[in-house]
């Protein structure tokens, strides 16, 4: 297991920025940590990279405890912090050289990460002369210097233009073939474009944890039906493959099925057999987009 988080809570004074968070990330997975601003994403990442300590709970990265084995955690993770702080007065090579010395990495590794992150054409420039996209590459190159097992990237694509976005996403996807990548974003398209799995966080709590292939395959389906009269939930629960029934409004029901087969005809037959009339019948979108909206809309 690359990342193991157990019951992490983080208090800033009396505000709970993280509230009993638990999850695991397997080797070489690309996991998107998705949530609105203020959800607690950066706080979680700072704990995993040992920059701050949790108030309660434990976390391990690459098998090492973030509290008792800080040094080993640090050598296991590459971290791109939010806003990517760089020394902009330095030349790209100078900057990477400086950090390579801090890490004790070989000089040949600098050329390797420059190549890996596509920095070669800009490597002779001052960081202040680079576009935002290339600055992100410098941040990524820096995070990769000590060849860590796990990459923790805090909003790596924020502020990039559409072309830069595509480039950085491809780069991260490529890196993710070998390394575990845990990246945060508040943009769900980002997760769709890059990740194997999404963990959605809202107000310090995990509200969803799904593999995108399951979301795409539509292994779950919600049918919305309006009858002309009230129906007992227990009655609807007799439908095949039904997992739950919710009466959302007057005679409107949301019926969840555990199948990708279109279940609307079953609902139609059910109504017919029981002398009910159907006023509306459709499938609810169970895409990442609707999941995100449902899980993070404030009430
Ligand atoms: P995200 O990265 O998802 O936008 P953060 O982890 O940065 O969220 O913040 C989560 C919550 O914790 C926010 O309400 C934020 O204001 C608060 N917070 C973050 N850092 C601190 C801090 N150092 N002191 C006090 N409150 C903080
Ligand atoms: Mg943040």
TrEMBL record:
InterPro entries: AAA+_ATPase, ABC_transporter-like_ATP-bd, ABC_transporter_ATP-binding, Motility-assoc_ABC_GldA, P-loop_NTPase. It comes from the Bacteria. PROSITE patterns: ABC_TRANSPORTER_2. Keywords: ATP-binding, Nodulation, Nucleotide-binding, Transport. SMART domains: AAA. GO terms for molecular function: ATP binding. It holds the Pfam family ABC_tran. Residues 3-228 form the ABC transporter domain. Belongs to the ABC transporter superfamily. PANTHER family: ABC TRANSPORTER ATP-BINDING PROTEIN, ABC TRANSPORTER ATP-BINDING PROTEIN NATA. This is Gliding motility-associated ABC transporter ATP-binding subunit GldA. It comes from Winogradskyella bathintestinalis.
């Amino acid at each position: 297991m690359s990342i193991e988080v157990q019951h992490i809570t983080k208090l800033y004074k009396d505000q709970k920025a993280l509230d009993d968070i638990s999850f695991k990330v397997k080797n070489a997975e690309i996991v998107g940590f998705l949530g609105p601003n203020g959800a607690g994403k950066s706080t979680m990442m700072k704990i995993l990279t040992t920059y701050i300590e949790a108030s309660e709970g434990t976390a391990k990265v690459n098998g090492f405890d973030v509290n008792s084995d800080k040094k080993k955690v640090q050598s296991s993770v590459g971290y791109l912090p939010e806003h990517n702080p760089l020394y902009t007065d330095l030349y790209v090579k100078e900057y990477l050289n400086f950090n390579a010395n801090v890490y004790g990495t070989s000089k040949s590794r600098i050329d390797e990460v420059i190549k890996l992150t596509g920095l070669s054409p800009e490597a002779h420039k001052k960081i202040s002369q680079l576009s935002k996209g290339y600055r992100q590459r410098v941040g990524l190159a820096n995070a990769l210097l000590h060849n860590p097992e796990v990459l923790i990237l805090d909003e790596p694509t924020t502020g990039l233009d559409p072309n830069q976005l595509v480039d950085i996403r491809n780069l991260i996807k490529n890196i993710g073939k070998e390394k575990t990548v845990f990246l945060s974003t508040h943009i769900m398209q980002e997760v769709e474009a890059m990740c194997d799995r999404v963990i959605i966080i809202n107000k310090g709590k995990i509200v969803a944890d799904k593999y995108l292939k399951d979301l795409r395959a539509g292994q779950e389906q919600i049918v919305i039906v309006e009858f002309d009269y009230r129906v007992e939930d227990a009655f609807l629960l007799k439908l095949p493959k039904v997992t739950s029934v919710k009466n959302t409004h007057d005679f409107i029901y949301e019926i969840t099925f555990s199948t990708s087969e279109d279940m609307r005809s079953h609902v139609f037959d059910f109504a017919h057999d029981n002398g009910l009339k159907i006023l509306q019948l459709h499938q609810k979108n169970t895409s990442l987009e609707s999941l995100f909206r449902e899980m993070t809309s404030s009430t």
